[in-house]
What we know:
The chain is α/β, with parallel strands linked by helices. The protein has 14 helices and eleven strands. Helix 10 links the parallel strand 4 and strand 5. Pyridoxal-5'-phosphate (PLP) binds next to helix 6.
Amino acid sequence: xxxxxxxxxxxxxxxxxxxxxxxxxxxxxxxxxxxxxxxxxxxxxxxxxxxxxxxxxxxxxxxxxxxxxxxxxxxxxxxxxxxxxxxxxxxxxxxxxxxxxxxxxxxxxxxxxxxxxxxxxxxxxxxxxxxxxxxxxxxxxxxxxxxxxxxxxxxxxxxxxxxxxxxxxxxxxxxxxxxxxxxxxxxxxxxxxxxxxxxxxxxxxxxxxxxxxxxxxxxxxxxxxxxxxxxxxxxxxxxxxxxxxxxxxxxxxxxxxxxxxxxxxxxxxxxxxxxxxxxxxxxxxxxxxxxxxxxxxxxxxxxxxxxxxxxxxxxxxxxxxxxxxxxxxxxxxxxxxxxxxxxxxxxxxxxxxxxxxxxxxxxxxxxxxxxxxxxxxxxxxxxxxxxxxxxxxxxxxxxxxxxxxxxxxxxxxxxxxxxxxxxxxxxxxxxxxxxxxxxxxxxxxxxxxxxxxxxx
Length: 456
Ligand SMILES: *Cc1c(COP(=O)(O)O)cnc(C)c1O
C-alpha cells in the first residue's frame, strides 16, 4: 500500500519531467479549476492515499508553470537536475531531521562535505562557515545577523543579549540596485530599511566606488556594507574587490548578495567578474537557482564562524551540542528541526564536479549571448544591458506599450516565458538563462516565438 503510493508519486513526477521539454510553459489551469480539483470542505473521514496523491498530481500537472523546463527565462529560477531530484526524494523518503548531529549523523556529514566543496569551487576562504537556508532571502538574513553581531561586539555591545534598544547606531550601506530581500532582512533584524545609506549606481546598475567612499566618510561607528554580484536585471557585478578595500579601511563588514552571480566564481572564464570577492565577510548564494537543485536551498557563508553562530545557536538543557565535535547544522541557520537540504546540493556538486559546474554556468551565459545577438538582429529590438552574464534586458518597439504587449503575447503563446521589468525608466523584457537543460535550439525556438509576437 505504502509502496503503491510512493510508486504512483514517482511515476507522476517522472511523467511530468518527461513532458517538460515540450509542454506549454505557461500554466493551463487557474485558481478556479484548481479549487475544483483539490478544494472543497475538509473530508469527514479518510481518503485513499492513492486517490489523494492522484488529485494532487493532477492539480500540479494543470497548475504548474514549467519553470523547471528549458524555455523558462523568467526571474532567475534554474531547474532541477535528475540527480538532485533523486537526492531530494531520498531526503523526504528517509525523513531525516537535519537539525543536529545527534538526530542524524548523515545529514551533518553531508553538509560538512558539501560546505568544503562549495568553498573550494567558489574560491572562498576554506575556514568560512556555511549555513544551508531555505533560499537567498534567508541567507541574506543570516549573513546580516552575523554582521550585526560582529560590528556591535566590536563596539562593546552584546546584541544577542541586549537587543538593539540603546545600542550604538549601526550604519547600513546599500547600493541603489540592492535586491528587495536585503530590505526584508534588514527589517527582520530590527535595522530597518528606511534608515540605510544608499550608494549611487552606474548605468549597468553597479555600485559606484567613488560614491561609496563619500557615503562611508559620513558613517561613524559600526558599519555594514551590502554589495551585490549579479544585478537581477542586467546581471552586472558591483566592483566587489574595490568595495572590500574601501569598507575594510573603515572597519566595516562587507556582505555580498550573490544569489546567482556568485557562481561566476566557479568558472575560470568568468571569475574575473568577482575579483576580490573572497575578501568579503559574508556571502549569500542560492543553490535552487543556478546550481539547479530543487527549491528550498540557499547558502549563507560567513568568514567569521563565531559571528555566524552567535545569533543562531540555541541552548537548552535537553540539547547536546556538537556531539564528538561534529557539526550541528542548526547552528548556522535560523531553524531547529529542518529539512536535510544539503543532500541535493551534495548531489549536484558530486555529479557535476568542478568542470561540470563551470560548464553549466558558461553554457547559460553563452545562451544569453545568443539571445542578445539574435534579438538584436531583429528590426525594432534593442538590447539595453551589457550581457556580461546570463541576463538580457530587451526593449521592443519604440514605446513601453509595445514592450509590454510583446511580453504578454509571448507569455500567452507559451513556447517560452520571460517577464517584464523597468530598466532605467524604460519598460523592458528580462530574459534570464539559468536552466541546465536549455539548448541552443531552445534559444532559437524562443527567438522565433518572440519575432512572431512582435510582428503580430
Ligand atoms: C533571487 C534573489 C534573492 C532571493 O532569493 P530567494 O532564493 O528567492 O530567497 C536575493 N538576491 C538576489 C540578487 C536574487 O536574485
